[in-house]
Amino acid sequence: MGKKVRTQYRQNLISTLIKSNPYIRPENVLREIEPKQEVAAVLEPVKELVHERVQQLVDEVVDEPVQIPSPESIPAQIQLSLEALVDELVDILVQDQDQSFSNQNNSIKTENSNKSNKSKVNGSYSNQTREKNVNKEQSQVSSKVSIPQNEPLNAAIELHNEGIMGNKQAVKSAYNSLKDLAKQDKNNLEIQAYLGSATTLLGRDANSVTDKMKYALEGLKLLDAVVESAPNLVIARLLRGNVSFRLPEMYFQRTSTAIEDFSFLVQAYEKDSSILTESEYNEVLKNVIEACKRSNQLEKASMFQNKSKTVNGEGKVKGNSTSSKQSSSKSSTKAKKNSKGKGLTDEAINIYERALNGSSVEVQEAIEFFENFVLTNSAPEVEMAYLDVQSMQGRDSINTYDMFGSAIKSLKAMDSLVNEYPSNRDLRLVRANHSLRLPENFFRRAATAVSDIEFLLKEYENDPTYLTEETYHQLLFDLGCAYERLEMIAEANETWNRLLKTKTSLSEVMQQKVYDKREVYAFQEINLSKYSTSNKDQFYNMAKELHYLGAKGSKKAAKQSLEAWEKALKAYPNCEVANTYYAASAALMGKHASDPQEMFGETIKALKILKTSIKTDNPELLYLRGSIYHALPEGFFHSSDKAIKDLKAVKSAYESNREKPRISHEQYVKLLFDLGQLYKKTSFLDNAEKTFITLLKVAPESKYAQRLVSQGVNKE
């Protein structure tokens, strides 16, 4: 481009800057310009950007941040910085005559945003990079590829990049545009990658924690699918790497993915430096170093730091990918050498599983065993099991501090261990189960469970011998439950349907679990106005069905159950059935709440009513209340004694009138198991043993009996 054209760009640019920000004046940029010159429309988008950039420069030399720029004079210290700013913007404007200004402006914004330390979900990438890097061939690393101009896609990407900078409306527009484009061109992996990134941005901007988790996970699934289909697609690696790097590690466990993607980009850049700009490459290096440090891979971090130090002016790196591989290999070998011992013995596995299925008694036995076992066997599987049983102390604790403290301490240690041995199947399985045991409202570990289970299922596809069919089925079911927690209902149903279609036969228990879930999500809201409280029996039967379906997991049914029983209370304010079921339905709303405050509010409201709602010895109502008391965390509500009192009364009523019982046989069996566990929790061990023996006699084939046998309980 000629000198005359370049000068014209400079004059137009500076004229725009003067009009948009009073800090910019002719004397500040040390150039002769014509302030009255007409400003080119193409320069309009830089106004806000330059205003922010100049304000940052001024803030560096004044005591207080500048809110409204209205200076009498500009500090001399930043005049050279302003001149450099103009030079930088002009260089970008003229570097490619064929490229539109809007594309270059995205690159300007991204680079400047990286220099300011603003929080972003994704990192920097420009349309220039995108046009250089698209390559859907999997056999070689992408380099410069000429693609046809796609204005709708370019516009969507521009919105996406605006969204990265914090523009929430741009995120929504980008998402909708990319979603439409993806429908029109289902095989375009570039569109899919950007759609995945835009979806994670929706999560960043969501108000509820559940939505944040849900959209982030949906976006990651799209990005993972693209990388799996085209592992050498540079833009997909760049997008996924930045998304993974920005997501909270405690919830998503994606640092390892970020390292994988950034490492790929570093090696690809060493082969072809045209795939990234120098600033993008430096950003990748900075992020991979931080990611390695975050996951305690210090040797690998040092290797990338050396690369960062040796980048020359042309953006090429001294060194090669072979040294990188050798360093990585050494690190992996070192990790393997640090693993001592032979792993879990049969005795250790038995004690660990008893703790999983048992009460505080079995947990304490397991802790005492593993305290000594880890001294002579420090294999990662042993350490993981020990961490898990320590976490169970919090599960059974009556102290809220211990409850949370044990869980948080264990999950952090588990994450560290998995980061050290990311391919260890046993560790991933334990962490997945641990994540699903923790209350989602407090710990937000469903995304971690999804990550671990999907890893295990892929491993199973490659090696079906490493899992039993029963464990494989349970993993598929649990994956659906993890999606359910994230309110990704379509994915949950798809997973459960996949389970039903497996070639291997499911157990009756597992089949029933899946059918229960399908029943929950097949529920359609009913028209309550069609039911009149004047027909009391019919209305109560309908409302009870809603409550039971809500207890199985249907939020819609739980909500309608509360509405129905509220209507019943207005008609029959002194009815103990209406009062008790209304309270039970309020407790269900607490169970389905999306945040802790709402959960506690609804539960406390329900407990106040339950305290006085039952006036007689009605076994049905006592069972309902006792089951609610039993389900509450003891550390918060201290309701075990109340649960024992109610369930004990129901047990006596059932056993004294088996011909016309007020609860079903299945409910009675569950009552025996729950009551026995409550006796153990409160140290009434003789009562617990007697109750369990009764269960083994009346229902020896039940799932509860099987759990008791696994804990060493015998009929005699």
Automatic annotation (TrEMBL):
Q: Pinpoint the residue ranges of every TPR repeat in the record.
A: 669-702
Polar residues biased stretches = 136-147
Q: Which UniProt keywords apply?
A: TPR repeat
* Keyword match Transit peptide: no
Instruction: Name the SUPFAM superfamilies for this protein.
Output: TPR-like
Give the Low complexity compositional bias ranges. 103-127, 318-332
- Domain of life, source organism: Bacteria
Coiled coil where? Answer: none
Could you tell me which residues belong to the region Disordered? 103-147, 303-341
Record keyword Acetylation present: no
Extract the InterPro entries matched here: TPR-like_helical_dom_sf, TPR_rpt
- Designated name of the protein: Tetratricopeptide repeat protein
Q: Which organism is it from?
A: Metabacillus elymi
